[in-house]
Design goal:
411 residues; ten-stranded mixed β-sheet; Peroxisomal Thiolase, Chain A, domain 1; 15 strands
Length: 411
């Protein structure tokens, strides 16, 4: 049986350096990052990627107060993606729409806040909010979006650590191919900067970035990189079957032609380059193309010393002798947006199908020799001869790896 071809027709996002695809993309080409200092409970100042979208654009004040930051991000991105798709959403059967939101963690923020609040009242639980349970259930971000958009089809979250953004899209593709839905809203979101536990955890590992200039703190591949900048954000997409998109004359950003997900099964935190190599190769095989036909590889590299090195090792293995394959990274601009990372980084590269530009990895003053890769784009964008396919890497703790391949749809 021939599988349905699945395409992207709408994009909605918020990032530390942009609240729309056009703004985000321009800042990536112009070298504009979006990191700042914030005050973190128990820790003082930390560096973070903070989004400044307006939640009131699609929510009422009470909904924002009762709901969660991850829910607001999901609603904003979902609404923006639907608007961008040009679909007549009011007329669309809402039981034929699915929402699949990747997320690294959910509920920590709300639980931390409630414990802190009742600590002021000698831990008297009568001051514990009755909104806590719906705020902290794992399906909350997708659930809030389904309530807001009145979607009655399947809506749930995908817990896949920092590979979750890619996995949201994979789930959407599979549900469309199974015929369970006719329109999917999918990607990833993160509210991680609201949790002191995440910052404290990375700091205790010696993996929390520090720099006197916030916008130079996230520096994948640089010899002086010293860790992760935690960020919030989100990117959700509308996905449809190709024939449906073409029938309504939709704008098509690209087609998902290959993907793969596997597990290292070797360590809680340290990645396994052999498994990453296998993941990329399996995705390429599913896309039925050669590595040399991929023109952009977006790396997951988070600016941790071993993580960057091991991913570079895997990329060198897969893309040896691929002179037209360029490699870039997005985290120097926005930090690590956790569950939103893969989805946001994909969005930043999709416009390359139209303009042929490859945005750079920034903040690389001195390239770590162990991170040398042919055609690694550093500090300034380049114009590629052509961009017909891109591969998006997204890896996570406990050894989950994902690779997603998007191709230009020929006229």
């Amino acid at each position: 049986m021939e599988l349905s071809r699945i395409v992207i027709t709408g994009i909605g996002l918020t990032a530390p350096n942009g609240n729309s695809l056009s703004e985000f993309r321009q800042n990536l080409l112009d070298g504009v990052a979006g990191i700042q200092r914030i005050e973190m409970r128990y820790m003082g100042e930390v560096l973070a990627g903070v989004c400044d979208f307006d939640p009131m654009r699609y929510q009422k004040r009470k909904e924002v107060r009762v709901g969660t930051r991850a829910g607001s991000i999901s609603i904003y991105c979902a609404r923006e993606a639907v608007a961008d798709s040009g679909i007549d959403f009011d007329a669309f059967s809402k039981d034929r729409v699915g929402i699949y939101v990747g997320i690294t963690e959910h509920g920590n923020v709300e639980t931390e806040n409630e414990i802190y609040n009742i600590s002021k009242f000698d831990y008297d639980t009568k001051f514990w909010t009755h909104h806590h349970n719906p705020r902290t259930v794992a399906n909350n971000p997708a659930g809030e979006a389904s309530l807001n958009l009145k979607v009655t089809g399947p809506s749930y979250t995908i817990g896949a650590a920092c590979a979750a953004g890619n996995l949201g899209l994979v789930q959407a593709l599979q549900m469309l191919r199974l015929g369970e839905v006719d329109l999917a809203i999918a990607g990833g979101v993160s509210e991680s900067i609201r949790s002191f536990g995440i910052f404290a955890g990375f700091k205790s590992q010696g993996a929390l970035a520090e720099h006197e200039d916030p916008n130079k703190a996230s520096r994948p591949f640089d010899v002086d990189r010293n860790g992760i900048v935690v960020s919030e954000g989100g990117a959700l997409y509308t996905l449809e079957r190709l024939e449906d998109a073409q029938a309504r004359g939709a704008k098509i950003y690209g087609e998902i032609t290959g993907y793969h997900v596997n597990s290292d099964a070797t360590d809680y935190v340290l990645p396994n380059p052999e498994r990453q190599t296998q993941c990329m190769r399996a995705a390429i095989k599913k896309a039925a193309i050669a590595p040399s036909q991929i023109h952009i590889v977006n790396t997951h590299a988070t600016a941790t010393p071993m993580g960057d090195i091991q991913e570079c090792e895997a990329i060198r293995e897969v893309f040896a002798d691929c002179p037209e394959t360029y490699v870039n990274n997005t985290k120097g601009f926005i930090g690590h947006a956790m569950g939103a990372a893969g989805a946001l980084e994909l969005a930043g590269n999709l416009p390359s199908f139209e303009d042929g530009m490859v945005h750079p990895s920034i903040n690389v003053d001195q390239l770590d020799p162990k991170c040398e890769i042919p055609n690694l784009v550093l500090n300034k964008p380049i114009k590629a001869k052509r961009v017909d396919a891109l591969l998006n890497n997204s890896f996570g703790m406990l050894g989950i790896n994902s690779a997603l391949i998007i191709e230009r749809v020929s006229d």
